[in-house]
Structure to design on (123 residues):
């Protein structure tokens, strides 16, 4: 059955700046509820990485050359908790969890690789 999940990404391969920009991430879990089964390929990270691998193959690039993943929005408490933990930023006080800008870091941010637990958590 259809889950109505929707992921929209932009994949950029230029010289040494390989980037994925995520602009929409409506997960199947959000649509079908917690008690319903999901397809085996349902998470944003799984879809995005599979497509990234294909794009790299088509362009004869190495998938590990990915430099940036840029997310347009982070909305779930669980996702934000992982971000606060990884970045070391203090979480906002209770009642202010949804405020914009609470997860902003100074440029150029923090570097993580896919060989690090933090990098995999962010993916």
């Amino acid at each position: 059955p259809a889950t109505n999940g929707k992921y929209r990404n932009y994949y950029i391969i230029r010289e040494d700046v390989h980037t994925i920009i995520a602009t929409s991430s409506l997960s199947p879990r959000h649509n079908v509820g917690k008690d319903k089964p999901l397809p085996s390929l349902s998470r944003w990270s799984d879809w995005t990485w599979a497509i990234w691998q294909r794009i790299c193959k088509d362009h004869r690039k190495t998938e590990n050359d990915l430099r940036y993943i840029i997310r347009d929005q982070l909305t779930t408490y669980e996702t934000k908790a992982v971000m606060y933990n990884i970045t070391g930023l203090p979480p906002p006080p209770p009642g202010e969890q949804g405020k914009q800008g609470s997860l902003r870091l100074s440029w150029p941010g923090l570097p993580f690789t896919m060989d690090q637990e933090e990098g995999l958590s962010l993916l």
The first strand starts at residue 6 and ends at 14. The first helix runs from residue 28 to 32.
